[in-house]
Amino acid sequence: MEEDKVRGKAEPSGWPAKAWSLLSATRSESPLIQCITNFVSMDLMANTLLSAGASPAMIHSADEIPDFTPHARALCINVGTLSADWLPAMKLAAQFACQSCKPWVLDPVAAGASGFRLKACLELVELKPTVIRGNASEVIALSKASLGPSKGVDSSHESTDAVEAAKSLAQASGAIVAVSGAVDIVTDGERVVGAHNGVPMMQRITATGCSVTALIAAFVAVDPLHALEATVSALSIFGVAGEMGMNLAKGPASLRMHLIDSLYGLDDAVVHSRVSITSFS
Prior knowledge:
CATH topology: UDP-N-acetylmuramoyl-L-alanine:D-glutamate ligase
Radius of gyration: 17 Å
Oligomer: single chain
Number of domains: 1
CATH superfamily: Ribokinase
CATH architecture: 3-Layer(aba) Sandwich
Strand order of the largest sheet: 1-10-9-8-7-6-5-4-2-3
CATH class: Alpha Beta
Structural class: alpha/beta
Largest sheet: 10 strands, mixed
Number of strands: 10
Shape: globular
């Protein structure tokens, strides 16, 4: 993208207020968010949701899903440590979420790393997630539905490289598609919006991407009719917490702690002064 395209068109009056209203609603409503996620990310995802005011539930047994999933406000599925044993539970939970008219969010971790993983992610996409959030390489792999070079859970592409792939995936799936990167890109297939908050050291903490996906699920839970706005607001709010935490951190370990504390302590003034969201189209 050219420099002016990366910057986007600022909308100072609307986005910070929207982001604050969604964080406030999450704090006041404490939505129950079911997470079927990987072993690496469970702790940080749960603590991110708690710090934002949501109520996490790490329920992944297929035996519990029929009773539990319909009562959750939203579902988050992350395939990071995917296994053949867990995939049926993920698909069953997605089916129950759809039947209950509850939003659900897919994190297609390392989607193009293997044939099994790509096939599983495509099967989950067929179950109509409300939002798909991944890095550029993951979104490109899903959009092309082909195997390509992968760096595991890391991305070998910038988020701006995946704009057209994200738009195509959004149009094909009906989902809002978010691409994490130096600028987080969110699209519904037509509109393209960018969140510019965050710090590079967040990439040095495992499960930050997984955790922001969970936060997206919480924001979509409190405003399911505006999933694009909820998604970009969650990305920006999480990035602001990272910026605030970085002011106190000495490295990745302390940033992890201060990130959670900062998310918990965000107030109206900070959100309105630091949220940076722009429209590309």
